[in-house]
Amino acid sequence: MAIDRAGLASFLRHRREALQPEDIGLPRGPRRRTSGLRREEVATRCNMSADYYARLEQERGPHPSEQMIAAIAQGLHLSLDERDHLFRLAGHTPPGRGGTSDHVSPGLARIFDRLHDTPAEVVTELGETLRQTPLGVALTGDSTAYTGPERSLGFRWFSDPSSRALYEPADHEFLGRMFASGLREAVARRGPRSRAAHYADLLLASSEEFRTVWGRQEIGLRSREVKRYVHPGVGALELQCQTLLDPGQHHFLLVYTATPGSESYEKLRLLSVVGAQMASTNTGLA
Questions:
Q1: pTM for the full model?
Q2: Residue 285: per-residue pLDDT
Q3: Cα–Cα distance for residue pair 286/266, rounded to 1 Å
Q4: CA separation for the pair 29, 129 (Å, rounded)
Q5: Is the pLDDT of residue 240 over 60?
Q6: Phi and psi at residue 238, to the nearest 5°
Q7: Which of 4, 6, 190, 260 is deepest in the core (most CB within 10 A)?
Q8: Which distant-in-sequence residues (6+ apart) come within 8 Å of 247 by Cβ?
């Protein structure tokens, strides 16, 4: 499939100009004259250089990879149909939808972009983190950096014991059962050839603990509203977790808060400083 440079450039310009600063949680300064977002603002959101993005809108530059197109589709808050159109313009076959999709819907993305001062993340039905706020990264580390099956927290729970260090030891037994329960539901929902089934097969072959928990045939275990962490920097934390489901993609927006005036609330305020420092050192990639 050949790239349609003129069509790609025109579509990118149109979608960029249609997206307003308020849509992505940015203030609209009094001196702003640009219709919609600036090119550099889109580039920052897509983790690429402003020059690289500008060349795409100018019908020049290298043939963008599938990863670049996926990042642009996410940064511009495209719907699934718009994302698929963008892939085709760039000469690529659109990725799958549903349980295998990593594309966060525009509605969920708009809510997420307004949570810059709160620990929050968007995860798949397999516990694969797609997006994190800076304070979310400060709380749990960069969970988007994993690849392969390790992207799934439930998979890491059984394959890498160090992944449990962040959680209150008294909760470990329940969390293991919950992850196995969720994986079993995903396998039944997606079928024996799904990514969920692949993860289950890998764990059944490698983890005796998983085989034991899996053998309990438990279904329907859900995350508790209060999550208890043992953070390496600030110590014990008790956070309320609110969940919003996007049923079309089966993605979850998880938002973590602490009771005002509590010790955990003060520790979150301390973590917000760490999150701000991490965000200020973020640089775009070409």
A1: 0.82
A2: 33
A3: 38
A4: 32
A5: yes
A6: -120, 115
A7: 190
A8: none
Lowest mean pLDDT, pick from 6-10, 27-31, 156-160, 281-285: 281-285
**Exposed e or buried b for every residue in 237-263, given b needs 16+ CB within 10 A?**
bbbeeeeeebeebbbbbbbbebeeeee
- CA–CA separation, 40 and 256 (whole Å): 30
How does DSSP classify residue 239?
A: E
Question: How many beta carbons lie within 10 A of that of residue 17, not counting itself?
Answer: 12
Separation CA 49–CA 235 (nearest Å): 37
Domains located in the chain, CATH noted: 5-95 (1.10.260.40), 106-280 (3.30.450.180)
pLDDT at 281 over 70: no
Q: Running DSSP on this structure, what letter comes out for residue 104?
A: P
Q: Supply 107's token pair.
A: 């509605």
Least confident of 15-29, 114-128, 166-180: 15-29
The strands making up 235-246's β-sheet, listed across from edge to edge, are 129-132, 120-123, 251-257, 235-246, 226-231
pLDDT of residue 21: 84
One-letter amino acid for residue 250 of the chain: H
Largest CA distance in the chain: 62
| 269 contacts 204 by C-beta, under 8 angstroms | no
